[in-house]
Design brief:
This protein is mainly alpha-helical and 165 residues long. Helices cover 64% and strands 8% of the residues. InterPro entries: SprA-related.
């Protein structure tokens, strides 16, 4: 299940951090040149508190998204049989660490020949796809397909029972 993320906001925040880092680099360069000529080794960074708040705010967004993505995908994986481990896509945060920004779970969608087992498995697939609070397009598509397959299975059962009467 791919999670639709607001990459524009994160990208915008990354651009703002890059601008701030460039400004700090420029200030550092001027201070270094000044210290060489004036023998003054102190560096005074203007606006340091503002930059730290931005950095913390951006880092918190990365951590929050990482937790949301992992919780979302684990909720899917806990509800039905899967064919592979959870697959996460990652992005490097401003601190250099990797943070999950998307993920997917591959469900075992094979349908058993036993009608009772097939019905149970379709219920599991539907529940697992609908497990997280916010459903992605893929989540809702899988839940809908499982529901339709269950209706078809019930229709086949009813048709078989009707024909045997």
């Amino acid at each position: 299940m791919e999670i639709n993320n607001n990459f524009e906001t994160i990208s915008s925040l990354n651009q703002q951090i890059a601008v701030k880092k460039a400004e700090l680099s420029s200030i550092d360069k001027k201070e270094d040149e000044k210290s060489l000529f004036e023998k003054n080794d102190s560096v005074n960074i203007v606006g340091k508190n503002y930059d730290e708040e931005d950095y913390k705010r951006v880092l918190d967004k990365y951590k929050e998204l990482d937790a949301e993505v992992k919780t979302h995908e684990q909720a899917h994986a806990a509800g039905a049989p899967t064919t592979a481990p959870i697959n996460y896509s990652y992005q490097v945060g401003p601190d250099g660490n990797l943070y999950a920004n998307g993920g997917s779970v591959r469900f075992d969608t094979s349908i058993p020949e036993n009608e009772a087992a097939a019905s149970v498995k379709l219920d599991q697939l539907q529940d697992a796809a609908s497990a997280p609070g916010e459903l992605s397009f893929a989540d809702s598509q899988i839940a809908r397909t499982a529901s339709l397959n269950k209706l078809l299975l019930q229709g086949i059962e009813e048709g078989a029972n009707y024909g045997n009467q």
